[in-house]
Design a protein that fits this description.
The structure holds 2 protein chains of 2 kinds.
Chain A lengths: L1 H20 L1 H5 L10 E4 L5 E3 L19 E3 L12 H13 L5 E6 L6 H21 L7 E7 L10 H7 L1 E5 L1
Parallel strand pairs in A: 4-5
Antiparallel strand pairs in A: 1-2, 3-6, 4-6
Chain B lengths: L1 H12 L11 E4 L5 E5 L3 E2 L7 H11 L3 E3 L18 H5 L5 E11 L2 E10 L8 E9 L4 H17 L8 E7 L7 E7 L6 E6 L3 E6 L5 E6 L6 E6 L5 E5 L5 E6 L5 E6 L6 E6 L4 E4 L7 E6 L5 E6 L6 E6 L4 E4 L7 E6 L6 E6 L3 E6 L5 E3 L7 E5 L5 E8 L2 E8 L5 E4 L5 E7 L5
Parallel strand pairs in B: 2-4, 2-5, 3-5
Antiparallel strand pairs in B: 1-30, 5-6, 6-7, 8-9, 8-31, 9-10, 11-12, 12-13, 13-14, 15-16, 16-17, 17-18, 19-20, 20-21, 21-22, 23-24, 24-25, 25-26, 27-28, 28-29, 29-30
Classes of the chains: A alpha+beta, B mainly beta.
Chain lengths: 172, 428
């Protein structure tokens, strides 16, 4: 009970903070060029969006490169004991480097619907963020994004692939 | 260069069939529909597509008809598009025949005229229906679909939806902009790329006017909901709050767009009121609420919630502000869609995997598919068919199932993995 209350509280504070950070986007409810990543029209008339030069990979400290993924059980956001060490080392890095900012990406396997999975992915990312916050990381250094089932790490439609796709990726 | 060569070859092989990205592979229910003889139309040589084969494919795809193979039919169409020898055609076992002409009336103006002739019982030899309409060469596919609409309506007393469009997302591995939002005719022809992105695109949904789509884009490496005109490609950003901006759903009356936002903590249902330009919160629950979808009269929102433990369908009534649980059977039920003209819902239910199912007003649930990775169901505007995404022979692709579960077809594509289909409105 207390734990639930506590997590809600932390969660709430994360949100206030994140909301404050991006207040500009919150107030602009309608059209605005700001944040629109359209870069023009393709030959076939399609609107091209996104920056093709942005690196999709890991942007964090080299020493944590091989320790940046936490895997989850099916339909669960509980962090398994074996991954606590990974999160702890990133937490330590963030405490040592107050200017560093981490982005925790939540992902799911393909089972269930995309819209439900995007919510489940957020719950996983938040679960990691909450643990980091409990470890004393400044919430200003934490942000989360859920990709749901949209960015699988491994292709395939079997448990082997699914187990590698149910994950939170710690990026910077 | 290679691409150009390839295009030329394709054109030679499929004269007049531009962008046939979706094929159709019937997997169930083909012999249960009305037996119908769709005869080759007497066409002006300038018409470069076969109207009767489009009509035949439409009727077959509806699940309500079993068109006989044209090669098995006697050639009995008269110069005016009628049937010369009813007995010969009647012997094939077909209930009715569709026959017609496409003749030139002026420069690039054609008369498309057809008759439906009874072949059995008291209707034998009677012309049940006779229509004509004008078309140019560029609208000839639509004219053929219009023939299908008329024939469908004659039998089912229900509006056909062969002139509707679908939207979907194609993933083209290795492309610079691999996530591509497309629209096409409901049968996969006339595919038009709308957006190509470096990052995922989710949940395209149509405005009731059929001119705009709303969708979720991760182009800024966080989700935002956009509304885009499919013709001008101009767009506006509807929401980019902190957290989730997902699952947009346009109300049938056109005044609101429901969505899932998590800006206030947990994922809850909101809507954007297009008349007042403001966001309104609908649910406030500690568990996941998502996948809002509107009732036909825009007065009720159905949604998925975990408030009872596992995900089930609930509804919010705007008149009473009350939430009621709708589904009880099945481990989980997700992604509800209303079936126009009925009190039933299409859902994704979890029973040995995730399958398309129908939930009737009394709460009973009927499995419509036997696959295990179904998602994103979208119902045709006349309620007859459901298009959804599934994994078929190791690839993600679209599939069709009739709302009664009898007719099933896969729509394999040559152009990448396809997901998130959305059936557009009937705007004709």
């Amino acid at each position: 009970m207390l734990k639930k209350y506590l997590s809600l509280l932390i969660c709430g504070s994360c949100f206030c903070l994140l909301t404050a950070c991006s207040s500009s986007s919150n107030t602009s409810s309608t059209a605005s060029a700001d944040g629109d990543a359209a870069i023009g029209l393709d030959d076939d008339g399609a609107l091209l969006v996104g920056d093709p030069n942005v690196q999709n990979g890991y942007n964090g400290p080299d020493e944590l490169k091989d320790k940046n993924t936490v895997y989850f059980a099916y339909n669960s956001e509980n962090i398994q004991d074996s991954y606590l060490g990974i999160i702890q080392s990133h937490a330590q890095y963030l405490k040592n480097n107050p200017n560093a900012r981490i982005i925790i990406e939540g992902h799911t396997d393909e089972r269930g619907t995309p819209e439900y999975n995007i919510a489940l992915g957020e719950r996983r990312a938040r679960s990691v963020a909450r643990y980091m916050s409990n470890l004393g990381v400044d919430v200003n250094q934490l942000s989360i994004v859920s990709y749901g089932e949209e960015k699988p790490a491994v292709d395939g439609h079997n448990e082997d692939a699914w187990s590698k796709n149910r994950r939170a990726v710690l990026n910077y | 260069m290679f691409k150009k060569f390839f295009t030329v070859v394709m054109l030679t092989l499929f004269v007049g069939t531009v962008h046939a990205e979706l094929q159709i592979e019937i997997t169930g229910g083909i012999n249960e529909g009305h037996k119908i003889a769709v005869l080759p139309f007497k066409q002006d040589p300038a018409v470069n597509l076969d109207v009767s084969s489009i009509v035949s494919a439409d009727l077959m795809r509806s699940g309500k008809f079993s068109p006989l193979p044209q090669s098995s039919l006697p050639q009995v169409v008269s110069a005016d598009g009628g049937i010369e020898n009813v007995d010969a055609l009647s012997a094939t076992g077909a209930e009715v025949a569709v026959s017609g002409i496409v003749n030139k009336t002026a420069d690039n103006k054609f008369n498309v005229e057809f008759k439906v002739t009874g072949l059995a019982g008291s209707n034998k030899g009677r012309v049940l229906s006779h229509f004509r309409g004008a078309s140019s060469l560029s609208t000839m596919r639509q004219a053929a679909h219009r023939v299908s609409d008329r024939v469908y309506e004659l039998f089912t007393k229900q509006k056909g939806c062969f002139r509707t469009k679908i939207a979907y997302v194609v993933y083209k591995r290795g492309a610079t902009f691999p996530y591509q939002l497309m629209t096409s005719d409901y049968d996969g022809y006339n595919e038009v790329p709308i957006v190509k992105s470096t990052q995922p695109i989710m949940t395209p949904v149509w405005a009731p006017d059929g001119k705009r789509v709303a969708y979720v884009s991760f182009e800024n490496r966080k989700p935002a909901i956009f509304v885009q005109d499919i013709f001008t490609k101009k767009r506006t950003r509807l929401s980019s709050f902190t957290g989730l901006n997902s699952s947009p759903a346009w109300s049938p009356d056109g005044t609101k767009i429901a969505m899932t936002l998590s800006k206030d903590g947990q994922p809850d249902i909101y809507y954007y009121d297009l008349t007042t330009s403001s966001f309104v919160r609908v649910t406030a629950d500690r568990s996941i609420d998502t996948e809002p979808t509107w009732s036909e009269d825009s007065r009720t929102l159905f949604f998925t919630s975990e408030r009872g433990g596992k995900a089930q369908i609930y509804k919010f009534d705007f008149a009473t502000n009350k939430v009621d649980r709708v589904t009880y059977q099945g481990a989980r039920n997700l992604s509800a869609k209303t079936i126009p003209g009925t009190n039933s819902l299409i859902v994704i239910t979890q029973v040995n995997g995730f399958r398309v199912a129908r939930v009737d007003a009394d709460g009973s649930i009927y499995m419509l598919t036997t696959s295990s990775l179904d998602e994103s169901p979208s119902v045709a505007p006349n309620g007859s068919m459901v298009i959804y995404s599934t994994v078929y022979q190791g690839r993600k692709g679209l599939a069709l199932v009739s709302s009664d579960g009898r007719f099933k077809a896969n729509l394999p594509s040559s152009s990448g993995e396809i997901s998130a289909p959305s059936w557009g409105p009937n705007v004709q």
